[in-house]
User: What shape does this take?
Amino acid sequence: MANGAALTLGPVRLVARWSLRSADHAGRFTFLLVDMLRGLAEWRIYLPRTFEQSLAVGYGSLFIVLLVAGFAGAVTSLQTGYQFTGALPLYYAGAVISESMILELGPVLTALILAGRIGARYAAELGTMRVTEQIDALESLGRSPISHLLIPRVLAGLLVIPALTMFANATGILVGYLTAKGSLGLTYGDFEYGAQFFFRPLDLWYSLVKSYAFACAVTLIPCYVGYNAQQGAEGVGRSTTGAVVSASVSILLLDAVITKLLLTAK
Amino acid sequence: MIELLNISKRFLDNVVLDGVSLDVHDGETVALLGPSGVGKSVTLKTINGLLRPDSGDVIVDGLHVPRLGRKEIQQLRSRIGYVFQYGALFDSMSVAENIRLGITDEACSSDEAYCTNRVRDCLRLVNLAPDVAEKYPAELSGGMRKRVGIARAIAGKPKYLLYDEPTSGLDPVNADVIDGLVERLQDELGVTSVVVSHDVRGSFRVADRVALLWQAKIRAVGKPEEILQSRDPAVQQFMERDLEMALIQSESETDRETHGPDV
Assistant: This one.
C-alpha cells in the first residue's frame, strides 16, 4: 500500500521528499556532533563508561577480526603465488602480501566486520533505549544521554578500532607468510626482503588514518541512527539494518576518497 | 506552580494539543484524564521539557521551560520526578543502580553511605523489600517495576512528580496498590503532582482536581465531584464508558473467582 502510494507521487515529488529527508538527517547529525563536542567537558561521566565499552567491544571483537585477517592474508598469498610463479621473482610475494594487508585489506575488512558487530550493537542498544523511553528517563533525571551513552561508545570505537586494525595487519602478514612458505616454498629471508623493499613508514600512517576515518563511520552513524529510532521493535530492527548498511557504504566511500587523497600526497 | 498557557503541538498532520491551558498549584494533585492517544503524555512531556510545544508557554517555578538552555533545563529536571508508563528502567543496571541515578544532587551522589541509605528509604516508601535492590528489572513483575520507577523518581527529593499512566497494564489489585502509593507519597512528601491516566476511578481517588483532555483541548476542569455532575456530553460519555469497563472487569473477576480461571 505504502509503495503504491509512493509510486503515484511522481518522480519529482519523490526526489523532493528524499532531498528534504537527507537535509533533515544532515542537520540533525550536525547538531548531534556539536552536542558531543560540548559534552567532552563532562569527562567524569564518560571516561569510566568509555573503558567499559572499550573492553566490551574490543575484547569481544578480537577473535573475529584476527580470523578474517588471517584468511585474507592466506588468500592473498595463494592468489599471489598463482599469478607470480614463473613470471616474477618470488620475493615480490612478500611485498604484495604486506602492502595489501597494510594499505587496504587490514583497515577495510576490519572496519566492515566491526560495522556489523559494533555498529549493529550500538544501533540496537540505543534504539531499544529510545523506544522503551530509557533515553527520555535519563533526560528527565537531569542527565545528558550524550555524555552517558553516546560519547563513551564513540570514544571506545576510536580507541579500539585502530588497535584492532594494527593487530589485523600483523596477523594477515604472518598468516600470508606461513601460507606462502607452505605453498610456494618462500623463505623468511625472501619474504622479509620483499616486504622491506617496497615498505615506507608512511604506509603505517596511511593504515592508521584510514582506520580512524572508518572508526568514525562505524561508531557515529549507528549511534545517530539508534538514538533517533522510532516505532517499537520494528523501528529498532529497521534502524539496526539501516545503521549497518549506511556504515558499510560510508566505509567504502571513505576508502575510495582517502586512497585517492593519500596516494596523490605520496 | 506549573502553568500551561495555550500550548499547541502537532506531529506532521496530526494535531495533538490545540490551545491547552492548565494550572497546577503547589501541593496539589491534578489528574489529567482522557482516552488513549489524546495527547496526555505529550502534555506531561512538555512540562519537563522532553517535548517543546509548537506554540504557547509552559512555566514551572516561574521558569519558561521552552526557552531554557541545556544546563538550566537539566537543573529544572532535577526538581521534577517523572514516572514513565512502562517504568523505563535501565535494564542493564540493578534496581539499586537505577534508583541511584535518580539522586541528582552531585554532592550526595558521590557519597556512598548516603546513596545506600537513600536507595533503602526509597524502596521502603514504595513498599518494596530491601533485597529487591540487587535484582535486575527483568526479574521484576509489572507492578514492582512501576514501584521501582516511582522510587527512582522520588530519589532526588523532587518538588514535582509527573506520573504517566501509573496503573496501565496492571490488574485491579496492583492498580489499587499503586493508587494508594500515589496518595500516600502526596501526603508524606507534600509534592505537587500531575497524574496522567485513563482510569477514572483511580484518578478520582488520588486527585484534588481532574482535567479532561478531549480532542486536543481541555474539555473540563474541576473537583472530582464537579466532573461527575457535569452535563457536558463528552464528559458524560467518557465517564460512562470507563464505568462500563470497570463493571465488565469486576464481573469477569467474579466469574473467575466462582468458576476458576479460563483455560
Q: What stands out?
A: The first strand of chain B starts at residue 2 and ends at 11. Residues 172 and 249 of chain B are 9 Å apart (CA to CA). The two ends of chain B are 51 Å apart (CA to CA).
